[in-house]
Amino acid sequence: MNFLIAPNAMKGALTAQKIAVILAKTLRRKYRDAEIVSSPIADGGNGTLECLMNALGGTIYEKEVTGPIPSLKVKARYGITDNHVAVIESADAIGLHLLSPSPETIAQSTSRGVGELILAALEQSCSEILIGLGGTATNDGGAGMAQAIGVSLLDQHHEPLREGNIALLQLNKIVSGKNITENCKMMILSDVQNKLLGDNGATYTFAKQKGASEDQLPYLEAAMKNFSEIVQRDLNSNCSDTPGSGAAGGLAFGLMTFCNAGIVSGIDHILDTISFDDKLAACDCVITTEGMLDEQTLFGKGIAGIAWRAKKFGKPVHAFAGRVNGDADKLKSLLGLASLTQISPEELDTQQAMRDASWLLADAVFHHSFSATQTGGI
User: What's CA 79's distance to the chain center, in Å?
Assistant: First the structure.
């Protein structure tokens, strides 16, 4: 068989590149004469920087920036391609993996580090900036990013706001100043379609996994709503109803508002960049991976993007996930997968499963029966 291996990272456990090596070695043990094409992917979240830089060529730089809380400094990477396009992976600066999430961290978390990376990219005269949004620890609507690039967020005493979501309850006035990104196209690569506010918005969908308590959610939402309303009043601009504006704790909203950023599906942009359709046409089946597969996967995650494209070519997709949260048979059917395999036993706790991810994945792939038959779905 001719295999196309297109893994997404298993966040916190294995990078897409490492998974690709494991898959290739395992398949060659089982199918000695198989043809294997390796094409690690990303959807705007973890692995976006490496994936795009490998495809486009260029240089990866490192800069010390503000981490997901104001007191934390981190060394974050960004790339400049040979065609002067900057690539920023938000999680490198403000990722959830950089702290132990709690109600205290979500209240003060900031997107300032992403703004500092934007400034670094602009100093290198980039004509375009691509920003991947997945995996962040923040819920500040992009306020910290805006402050970093020169936007003034003031309280009723005309004093600058402190960092974080809860401080936005005190926001009284916005002074935007000069748009420093007016000569640079900016594009958001998102893996979700959630709006900024509401039951399916940034706070109520994602804040709990970033440390928020149940009792805290209404206050976080009220702060975000106040931010949105003052943006509307002072800037006559409000992107809060735009699909995807709630991505990365509303960082997408801030980028749309203060940087005039557009937003696209991260997985579609990346698959186009790496000429994925050409590779699909030549293969017999596709193998892909995900750390957690659940209903959110249906709305723009890596596996959904691959499955949709594979269906056009009549190619089966075999997916391996660290965990499947929900009805596995239903998710398999909705995604149109030929197979869906959870690699870790239910009784194995998450931390142990992440530590053992390499051999769990290799074992699951080695003992799997791969078909060249596609199923229904999306």
Answer: 16
Every domain of the chain and the residues it spans: 2-38+274-366, 48-266
Q: Please enumerate in sequence order all residues whose Cβ is within 8 A of that of 31, keeping only pairs 6 or more positions apart, or say none.
A: 1, 3
For tokens 């991260």, name the residue. 266
Q: Which amino acid is at 307?
A: A
Instruction: Write the pLDDT tens digit of every residue in 129-155.
Output: 999 998 899 999 999 999 999 999 999
Q: Which CATH architecture has domain 48-266?
A: Alpha-Beta Complex (3.90)
Helix count and strand count (H, E) for the chain: 15, 13
Cα 28 from Cα 52, distance rounded (Å):
27
CA distance 114 to 163: 14
Tokens standing for 291? Answer: 């750390």
Angle between helices 48-56 and 16-30 (to 10 degrees): 80
Cα separation, 128 vs 133, whole angstroms: 16
The whole-angstrom separation of Cα 127 and Cα 142 is 22
For 136, the 3-state DSSP assignment is strand
Residues 340-349: contacts with CB within 8 Å, 24+ apart? Answer: 340/293, 341/368
User: Distance between CA 61 and CA 59 in Å, rounded?
Assistant: 6
Q: What topology is assigned to 2-38+274-366 in CATH?
A: Rossmann fold (3.40.50)
- 39 within 8 A of 4, measured Cβ to Cβ: yes
> Binning pLDDT at 50, 70 and 90, where does residue 111 land?
very high
Scan for tokens 């966040």, then name that residue.
11
CB atoms within 10 A of CB 36: 18
How far is Cα 64 from Cα 178, in angstroms, rounded to an integer? 25
The per-residue pLDDT for 296 is 81
CA distance 151 to 258: 8
The stretch 332-348 carries a mean pLDDT of 94
